[in-house]
Design a protein that fits this description.
Shape: elongated
Number of helices: 14
Distance between the termini: 37 Å
Radius of gyration: 27 Å
Strand content: under 5%
Largest sheet: 2 strands, antiparallel
Structural class: mainly alpha
Number of strands: 2
Oligomer: single chain
Order of helices and strands: HHHHHHHHHHHHHHEE
């Protein structure tokens, strides 16, 4: 916090005494420092300020793009899209990068069909191999979620880097099977069995024990004609028993979601979109594959 306050005071001072070139340099440094400190929204504001200061359209577009990237990192997707609009207004030279970041915003908001629209609009033949791999990884992500597995295999097989771990994870995923919520709910009629179907064995044992205890309590109260306690215990048993049914459905959905999440984590491993600020106003991304 003290660092940011000091920087702000310094900028206000230098804005009063420095030339335009010096002001641009200071604002740029401020934007980079804030980005390095993960204060992405404030960094985006500084990049917007840079874009407003410069007159060259290509440089203006690059700074608007950096602002869009920082808004994306701060999960301000509407503002990120707005900066990308400004970027394209200034120059069309960054169109492939603009489409990629628009796709990232769509993926983050789980709008996978929209993300495919942007990604498929990028001409891969005109890009370097690293950038092609970045696009293909994201195409694979969207197609996996949409269950277009043949498209995924095509994208994964076209990667230039050796993504053996990702390919193995994908093959494991498509060779496995999702759990059906309807089956989980049906099996939940027998307490614990719906959870066991989705391999939630701890929940299965807990459901079996609790339902058994309440059932025993019902029988014991009925045997001693303690109908008041019987009614109370029956209410709780109804809750636990219905929970076993709905729990079986939820467990199946959790199983499927976790299976997909594990796959996507492997596919995105070392494939995070990292803007290379050292090369601004040229746009490039740091990229590793594994």
């Amino acid at each position: 916090m003290k660092t940011k306050l000091t920087l702000i005071v310094a900028i206000l001072f230098f804005n009063a005494v420095c030339s335009n070139a010096d002001q641009l340099s200071i604002t740029r440094q401020m934007a980079l420092i804030l980005a390095n400190e993960n204060d992405h929204e404030q960094s985006a504001i500084e990049f917007r300020r840079l874009a407003a200061f410069v007159s060259e359209n290509n440089i203006k577009a690059a700074y608007y793009y950096a602002a869009a990237y920082e808004y994306w990192k701060s999960e301000k997707y509407y503002l990120s899209q707005k900066m990308l609009d400004n970027c394209e207004t200034a120059s069309f030279d960054l169109t492939p990068y603009v489409r990629l970041l628009r796709a990232e915003c769509s993926i983050a908001q789980k709008q996978f069909k929209e993300s495919l629209f942007y990604l498929e609009g990028i001409s891969l033949n005109e890009q370097n191999q690293e950038f092609q791999d970045i696009i293909r990884i994201r195409l694979a992500h969207a197609n996996i979620v949409l269950k277009r597995y043949e498209n995924v295999r095509n994208e994964m097989d076209s990667l230039h880097c050796q993504h053996k771990e990702a390919l193995d994870a994908f093959n494991l995923y498509i060779n496995g099977k999702d759990k059906k919520g309807s089956v989980g709910g049906f099996l939940g009629l027998i307490p614990g069995l719906g959870y066991a179907y989705s391999k939630e064995y701890a929940n299965a044992l807990r459901s079996l024990i609790m339902n058994s205890l309440f059932l025993y309590g019902q029988i014991d109260c009925a045997r001693h004609e303690q109908w008041g306690f019987f009614a109370v215990i029956s209410f709780f048993e109804l809750t636990w028993y219905s929970g076993s049914i709905y729990g079986g459905i939820d467990a199946a959905h959790r199983y499927n979601n976790n299976r997909l999440k594990d796959l996507l984590e492997v596919i995105y491993n070392n494939n995070e979109l990292i803007l290379n600020y050292q090369r601004l106003p040229s746009i490039s991304f740091q990229y590793n594959c594994k």
